[in-house]
């Protein structure tokens, strides 16, 4: 009775890894089904003279390697043993190899169970004061010195044959319910990658896309990958896009221009090939400018954190008093050169200067507008005006919060500033009266 209870306790504590303290001398077997519906797999174990258990997977005879078996290439031999491990319930690992002096031909190659050998646990080194400092991260190891191996050796005919094959394992093999977690059975197929890619385009993360794949394939075990694989695929996808997004955008613009001749774009790169300037305007934006382009607002206050580039749209107002976009640009610097480049391409795309261009109080823009929107080639020079919203936003900073928030100064000022029907003389008179009332003549 005590012997059987101890055996049950040991079985419930995970891997036995060749434990010689076994008290049971019985021979039992665990029956499980193979990875495919037509193939069964029986994993049995037996006790050695020292009391350790040794597990021997039993699969279809055509799937079991044998000494002297010949493979045309090393890759085919590796795939055969990998598939055998996937059916049996264990992963493989490539280890020692012997090559020629030029390192071009592999003469001998070892494939072992992923639980072969032991991991050395580094508990840290002494710092001189008697205590130990832990070096790096300590993780749980599943290696237990498994001796299962598969060795391929090159023949005189430049083929590879099985030089050595050890079938027994000293640990239980993975049952059918958990075999979809094996690396050999985990693969991000083209279909799964398309699910991750299409989900990322609509801001769906890998967790939800994995749940969607589970519903689509009829269960987690049928997906063929884990949530970690979905997350890694999403990470690699973002990394790929992050390194090539500039070229991808230019390629996209080229296709759009080939599809629609009215699409206009221009770009510049620096000496290292990084995108520094980009301007574009589609057919709708250019058509809107023809109708509503008498007054254009250029706002360069949008900053993209990831690339540290300025996003500046050219916008206007339609007959419904709704904002419309004429064009947009990305700039790496807020300099006269960058603004002049952008404004020149805006004129080239639209074919004319705007009647009025409204910007914030930027010295670089002031110079660029004066040099670009000029009366040349039968074009009418643009009038440069400053954005009233930016001016009003700076009142508290220039005059102080006490005057702007604790008095009716701002209320009276807005009466004259935001009135669209006021005459010039009336504005000047009202402005002067407010300045005098709050004694700001010397400000």
Automatic annotation (TrEMBL):
Q: Could you tell me which Pfam families the record lists for this protein?
A: FAR1 (PF03101), MULE (PF10551)
Indicate the segments forming the FAR1 domain, all copies.
79-174
The highest taxon in the source lineage is Eukaryota
Q: List residues of the MULE transposase domain.
A: 296-393
Query: Which protein is depicted?
Result: Protein FAR1-RELATED SEQUENCE
Q: Which organism is it from?
A: Heracleum sosnowskyi
């Amino acid at each position: 009775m005590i012997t059987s209870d101890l055996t049950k306790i040991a079985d419930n504590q995970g891997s036995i890894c060749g434990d010689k303290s076994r008290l049971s001398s019985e021979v039992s077997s665990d029956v499980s089904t193979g990875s495919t519906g037509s193939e069964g797999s029986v994993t049995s174990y037996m006790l050695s003279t020292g009391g350790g258990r040794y597990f021997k997977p039993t699969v279809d005879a055509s799937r079991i390697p044998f000494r002297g078996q010949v493979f045309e290439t090393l890759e085919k031999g590796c795939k055969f043993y990998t598939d055998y491990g996937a059916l049996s319930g264990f992963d493989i690992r490539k280890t020692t190899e012997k090559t020629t002096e030029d390192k071009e031909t592999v003469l001998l190659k070892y494939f072992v169970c992923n639980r072969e050998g032991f991991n050395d646990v580094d508990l840290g080194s002494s710092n001189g004061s008697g205590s130990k400092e832990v070096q790096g991260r300590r993780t749980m190891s599943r290696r237990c010195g498994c001796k299962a191996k598969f060795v391929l050796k090159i023949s005189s005919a430049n083929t590879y044959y099985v030089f050595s094959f050890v079938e027994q394992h000293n640990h239980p093999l993975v049952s059918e319910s958990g075999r979809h977690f094996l690396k050999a059975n985990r693969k991000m197929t083209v279909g799964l990658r398309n699910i991750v890619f299409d989900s990322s385009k609509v801001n769906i993360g890998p967790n939800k896309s994995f749940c969607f794949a589970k519903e689509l394939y009829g269960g987690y075990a049928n997906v063929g990958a884990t949530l970690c694989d979905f997350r890694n695929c999403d990470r690699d996808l973002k990394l790929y896009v992050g390194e090539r997004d500039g070229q991808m955008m230019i390629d996209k613009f080229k296709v759009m221009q080939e599809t629609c001749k009215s699409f206009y774009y221009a770009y510049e790169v620096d000496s290292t090939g990084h995108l520094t300037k980009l301007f574009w305007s589609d057919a709708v934006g250019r058509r809107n400018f023809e109708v509503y382009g008498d007054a254009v607002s250029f706002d360069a206050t949008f900053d993209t954190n990831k690339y540290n580039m300025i996003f500046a749209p050219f916008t206007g107002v339609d007959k419904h008093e709704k904002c419309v976009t004429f064009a947009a640009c990305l700039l790496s610097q807020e300099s006269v050169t960058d603004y002049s480049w952008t404004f020149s391409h805006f004129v080239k795309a639209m074919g004319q200067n705007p009647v009025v261009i409204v910007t914030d109080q930027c010295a670089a823009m002031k110079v660029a507008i004066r040099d670009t929107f000029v009366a040349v080639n039968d074009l009418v020079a643009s009038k440069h005006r400053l954005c009233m919203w930016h001016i009003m936003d700076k009142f508290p900073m220039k005059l102080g919060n006490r005057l702007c928030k604790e008095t009716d100064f701002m209320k009276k000022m807005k009466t004259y500033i935001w009135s669209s029907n006021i005459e010039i003389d009336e504005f000047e008179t009202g402005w002067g009266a407010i300045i005098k009332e709050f004694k700001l003549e010397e400000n």
